[in-house]
Amino acid sequence: MTKEILINAFNMNSVGHINHGLWAHPRDQSYKYKTLDYWVSLAKTLERGLFDGIFLADIVGVYDVYQGSADLTLRESIQLPVNDPLLLISAMAAVTRHLGFGVTVNVNGEPPYLFARRMSTLDHLTEGRLGWNIVTGYLDSAARAVGQDAQAEHDSRYERADEYLEVLYKLWEGSWSDEAVLLDKAGRRYSDPNRVKPIVHEGRYYKATGYHLAEPSRQRTPVLYQAGTSGRGKEFASKHAECVFITAVDKAAACKTARAIREGAVKAGRNGDDVKIFVGITVITGSTQSAAQDRYRDYLHYANPEAGLAHFSAGTGIDFSTFELDEPISYGTSNSIQSVTQLAQEKRWTKRQLLEELKIGGRYPLIVGDGDSVASEMISWMDEGEIDGFNLTRTVVPESYEDFVDHVVPRLQERGRYKTAYADGTLRKKLFGAGDRLPDRHFARSFAI
């Protein structure tokens, strides 16, 4: 059976996200990110285009590696200022019926006991349309902001995250039984005390004893997203993730990573198709090839490759401002995003080559063309890359998403590679075509009451 393409809008509660510099375009409205109208309008557009979800990125900290300061970050709004993504979800959920929400929250942000309630609340309010993108952090600026000297060593961050997830699973899956809520007005019994129990956790990083404060939501555990593809990141994904966001420069790289992730899931006792794999892409489209190319040339006038390089500096921990354009760069071992550093090392990118890669302000694969040609290329990525879908970045908003909905979605539908209507049910049920809850073979279910 031919797979239908899954698509998330890739966004952030900020002016700049991936394709830097385009905030300066006369038609760009990303500066309105502080308003509900901006997000409500976007949600309606995405649901009109039958997007599976909006994937909201987030960082805690600032990009201050490039030139040893945050000056360029502030001038070009390189993910700064950045507001809390969680607070957007209720508003967008209120004007949609099917759109899913994948929200990034760092495991170091708050104790798991409080976070569990926050996510259960949102899963209730969205009627089961919530996903969580699990991140462990990589910015020293974030660590310093909360009183630490620097980020913990890369692999140890995943060890801490493993335990964080264990506490959450105990709360989400193991505190309230499905039969605990009675809502018996005549008998004055809202819930059955015999079917609710406190969790007890005493580990290396966390201690928690108490009842989960929220009754079971539609999904119990939100859909679990994850974006780390280092060796330790893949191990973490194999155990926990249901949706994995990968960066791939070409289809062969996507295929290699996708196969490794699925093989890891099988080794962890899961099925290979228990994991959906998304690649980040940028699309610039129009009613004709000529119109799309005109859009592209127009956008290039405003894109800032240097701002993209500053973002890349944060991802690798290397200050590229200190290198000449063609000077060899020793990437070495990084405590930042290891997969990014490894890719740069494999490609032996110089500063000049990086700036060329970043000419639209970001470094994800770029597809420019009319709806038909974009659809063909996306289908090629799906089939040759053995992936399940895409995180679609924004360029000039709102037109980049509107153009995609108007020009690309109909062409994908004509080829039978994109849904023509939403399925019913929760985000998990829509994505996997099974139940609302995690399957029993997932590690979380070992804590079920």
From TrEMBL:
<feature type="domain" description="Luciferase-like">
    <location>
        <begin position="29"/>
        <end position="320"/>
    </location>
</feature>
<keyword id="KW-0503">Monooxygenase</keyword>
<keyword id="KW-0288">FMN</keyword>
<dbReference type="InterPro" id="IPR011251">
    <property type="entry name" value="Luciferase-like_dom"/>
</dbReference>
<dbReference type="GO" id="GO:0016705">
    <property type="term" value="F:oxidoreductase activity, acting on paired donors, with incorporation or reduction of molecular oxygen"/>
</dbReference>
<feature type="binding site">
    <location>
        <position position="230"/>
    </location>
    <ligand>
        <name>FMN</name>
    </ligand>
</feature>
<protein>
    <submittedName>
        <fullName>Monooxygenase protein</fullName>
    </submittedName>
</protein>
<dbReference type="InterPro" id="IPR036661">
    <property type="entry name" value="Luciferase-like_sf"/>
</dbReference>
<feature type="binding site">
    <location>
        <position position="58"/>
    </location>
    <ligand>
        <name>FMN</name>
    </ligand>
</feature>
<dbReference type="Pfam" id="PF00296">
    <property type="entry name" value="Bac_luciferase"/>
</dbReference>
<comment type="similarity">
    <text>Belongs to the NtaA/SnaA/DszA monooxygenase family.</text>
</comment>
<keyword id="KW-0285">Flavoprotein</keyword>
<feature type="binding site">
    <location>
        <position position="154"/>
    </location>
    <ligand>
        <name>FMN</name>
    </ligand>
</feature>
<keyword id="KW-0560">Oxidoreductase</keyword>
<dbReference type="InterPro" id="IPR016215">
    <property type="entry name" value="NTA_MOA"/>
</dbReference>
<feature type="binding site">
    <location>
        <position position="158"/>
    </location>
    <ligand>
        <name>FMN</name>
    </ligand>
</feature>
<dbReference type="InterPro" id="IPR051260">
    <property type="entry name" value="Diverse_substr_monoxygenases"/>
</dbReference>
<feature type="binding site">
    <location>
        <position position="104"/>
    </location>
    <ligand>
        <name>FMN</name>
    </ligand>
</feature>
<dbReference type="GO" id="GO:0004497">
    <property type="term" value="F:monooxygenase activity"/>
</dbReference>
